[in-house]
Amino acid sequence: MLRQFFSVGGFTALSRLTGFLREMTISALMGAGPLADAYFVALRLPNQFRAIFGEGAFNSAYVPTYSRLLSAQGHDRARDFASRVLTLLAISQVVLLALAYLFMPQLVELIAPGFSKFPDKFALAVSMTYITFPYLGLITIATLHSGTLNAHGYFAVAAFAPVLLNLFIMGFLALSFAFPNAGYAASWGVLLSGFAQLALLVWEARRRGVLERFAKPKLDADIRQFLRALGPAVIGSAGQQIAILADTILASGMPTGSVSAINYADRLYQLPLGVIGVAAGTVLLPEMSRRLSRGDVVGAQAVQNRSMALSLALTAPFLVGFLLIPGELVRGAYLRGAFNASAAENAASVLMAYGFGLIPMVLIRSAVATFQSRGDTATPANCFYAGLAFNVLLKLALSGSMGPAGLALATAVGAWINFALLIVIGHRRGLARADDRLFENLALMLFATAGAALATLPGLALARLAVHSLPFLRNEIVLVTTFAALSLAYGGLLAFAAQWLFGRGLRRQLL
Q1: What is the pTM of this model?
Q2: CA distance 241 to 352
């Protein structure tokens, strides 16, 4: 499992890093003004529908069913099931695209009602959404191929495919002089990247001999089980998107730049969240499903504990950075071109607020595998909605006084409630058991994290002093040196504690 984790994590890291470069390019060309706000809303609509009907909900219902059929009845039966799902998925996406094109202005007004006060910004958002929305259908079909490949243990190409989105956007931004503005250039990059991702995954599925075909839909027992699992999963994913939609709705009524501040902070937040959390969830769900299908409950719980420990170990340096040096992270990443100091300050406050929810957000993907690997998609949905209730109430309470940072802080609180409920319910049902090894790992990581936090601010002061007289790249050098120093301090303390404080057994676990 570790090899697969780092394979997925490596390519996902490449995706997040190229996404980070993409956001740096966008920030330099668009800044945090009306054009950037309109573009981010145009990208948000297909991404929200994709998250509801695509990756999150679809995989949690599809992968366990496909894995069960593959294990119990063989490849041909699993491929027949996948082919029927492909047909249903394609029909749903054609219908959704047609409805979206008929009611696009209303959709944009729903997701960003505050834009109606700014007709030019609203018109930009609508026209760019016409370009980006078909990306939803392309990437949803691509998700089916990704799920099939993952169920067979092939993770690399599916993890690499999202890199194409970032490469295409940056490529089209380089040609923005040929478009009305940079927002239109980036929107066309989004659309064409969907074709490229789908083509890559179709090629890989064909090469591996697992490519689905269009087949006549048939409501047999397998499809009915899939749909029963998909319904609660869609409701759960929709709830998560409701929280994101609430951010956009409330931010659209705030001063110009608020939508952009949330997006730029979220891009930094997605570096650990996307790389570590997604890698853990992507690998863990089919692994637990396979073990449970063989009756290996103890083995399934063991790999889940190892996944959580590894996720926490890799997340800790980012937690320290987001809480202690958010300003340095944002300035080093974005402060250039059209992105000014005021925009950096707004994004930094959002990033710090997001940081309070980093731990549960990373671990939720591993926690929901407790239930999804057993075909239970209803319990994770119920847990999420409990957290969502507090989330939305806090958004309404905090957005007036704290602005975009209040929205992010509410998201963090909701994540903690969601995660806590998943852990408690899983433990009470006897489905998830934390072993002694996990608690030992937690003690080791808490020690190292505390030491890294104590070393961060002195390291920041030294970095600022060292670059004080430099004529350029001061923010970038401060960012790199400070984050590298806290990461090295964390790694060094991990090694020291495992060697001298916690004993030989834990040292072997660390290695």
Answers
A1: 0.71
A2: 21
